Amino acid sequence: MSFLLVASIVPADTVQAQNARAADEAAIKRILTEPGRSAHTAADLDWENAFGVRRRGLEETIKYLEERVYPTTTTAVDTTLEIRVMFVTDDVAVADQYWSLTGQTDGPGGKTLPDRQGRDTYVFQRRAGQWRMVVQRIADLRQQAPKPAAAPASLIREQGLVANFYQPSGSGKHPAIVVVSGSDGGIELADRWGRPLAAEGFAVLTLAYFGMEGLPPLLEQIPLEYFKTAIDWVRAHPAVDPARVGFAGFSRGGEAALLIGATYPEVRAIVAGVPSHVASAAIYPNDFAKTSAWTLGGKPVPFVPYDTSQPFTSLLDLYVRGLQNEAAVEAAAIAVERINGPILLISSGDDKVWPSSTMADQVVRRLQRNRFAFPVEHLNYDKAGHAISGPPRSSSLSPSAARALRDMGGTEEENARARADAWAKTVTFLKRALGVAARGN
């Protein structure tokens, strides 16, 4: 259970970390089910409960729990329902623990508290050969843990769309999210959002926009009207409340999300992961395009071209130099003040693909200058890299994939920490932004 995480500060037998995945999973599950788990908790623990209360360090966390939590739970029965080890590498692991709390009759002021269910997400790091818990995030799921399984994805191949649709369990009309990936353009990466968001009660359309059969082969002059077709399709679905539709994307998809939100007021919430504040150039294999990635009304959207006037050492160098073209930046700046709902920005300070932290800051500044009427939240993870958007990864990575992620910036620990934190806050943001029917269409 969440707040029983560090209930004991008496050292327990150390769990020896193993190289094999099966042994690592068993070790992590054992840590999460045995008493006195603070023996396996890092001194620099980053802890946050379901109400947004945050503590840094094991000592401060224990102090808070002893003062504010333990006195109200003396009658509670805490049961672990399930533990899922979502992701394991040689040095980092992520796990979810589902729990229930019953019989808590000594709430504040003597109030009897209802039974609760929830999920704790943990990030572990291997230190000196042993697993140490470094992050804990608590979600109070009330009567939803484990959550009902979402229906299998439905393949959507109509109206020119290439997508998968996830419908949540339960009757009635649900809020919906359209999700797009980055410069791969396909469904696979966006699909990682589908089932987890559907389990949270959202209808989800994971949308490809290039690089698949029936779509343009490259990220080059993609019509924004294609995304409008997807939005209209979702809003017309009988399981969707048309007044509660959001749009989410990451990397080049984060750029797309801001563009779509600024163009189509039917979209009522935006999640932009590691985005750009300007429309960018197309991407060609082995070439750096001089055309826009997007069109609207048949015309190219103004964009910032790549600066290839001199040798460059990385994509980051190429993008940073392009952003020094002040005239192009001004013309290509996304009119984010036109977005018709709350915005969540996620960025990283060690992004090796493009300067997402700086660009997200530019989005915030433009919104402030224009007195944007809706809430804006910017989550910046200073030590993380580019690949931090979406749910924690559910499988081990191949050596080549792990190397590719390292090349995008951040360490495995910082990226896993950022991803777990950002995902929990993404779900909270979407529930808050779309949980109550928005006024108007």
SSE map:
Layout lengths: L20 H13 L7 E8 L5 E3 L1 H12 L7 E12 L3 E11 L13 E12 L2 E11 L13 E3 L6 E4 L7 E7 L7 H12 L3 E5 L14 E2 H13 L3 E11 L1 H12 L5 E5 L7 E4 L2 E6 L1 E3 L2 E2 L14 H8 L3 H7 L10 E6 L7 H14 L6 E6 L17 H9 L4 H23 L7
Parallel strand pairs: 1-6, 9-10, 9-12, 11-16, 12-13, 13-18, 18-19
Antiparallel strand pairs: 1-2, 3-4, 4-5, 5-6, 7-8, 8-10, 14-15, 16-17
3D architecture notes:
This protein is an alpha/beta fold and 441 residues long. The chain has 2 domains: 2-140, Nuclear Transport Factor 2, Chain: A (Roll); 154-434, Rossmann fold, CATH 3.40.50. 28% of the residues lie in helices and 27% in strands. The chain contains 10 helices and 19 strands. The strands form 4 sheets. An 8-stranded mixed β-sheet has the order 7-8-10-9-12-13-18-19, sandwiched between helices.
Which terms summarize this structure?
441 residues; alpha/beta; Nuclear Transport Factor 2, Chain: A; Rossmann fold; eight-stranded mixed sheet; 19 strands; 27% strand; globular; disordered N terminus
Note the total helix count.
10
Number of domains: 2
Reported for the largest beta sheet, the result is: 8 strands, mixed
CATH class of the largest domain: Alpha Beta
State the order of secondary-structure elements, H for helix, E for strand: HEEHEEEEEEEHEEHEHEEEEEHHEHEHH
Helix % is: 25-40%
* N-to-C span: 41 Å
CATH topology of the largest domain: Rossmann fold
Computed CA radius of gyration, to the nearest angstrom: 23 Å
Question: Judging by the overall fold, what is the CATH architecture of the largest domain?
Answer: 3-Layer(aba) Sandwich
Q: CATH superfamily membership of the largest domain, which one?
A: Alpha/Beta hydrolase fold, catalytic domain
Q: Please state the average pLDDT score.
A: 84
- Which parts are unreliable, with pLDDT below 50 for 5 consecutive residues or more? 1-19, 143-149, 436-441
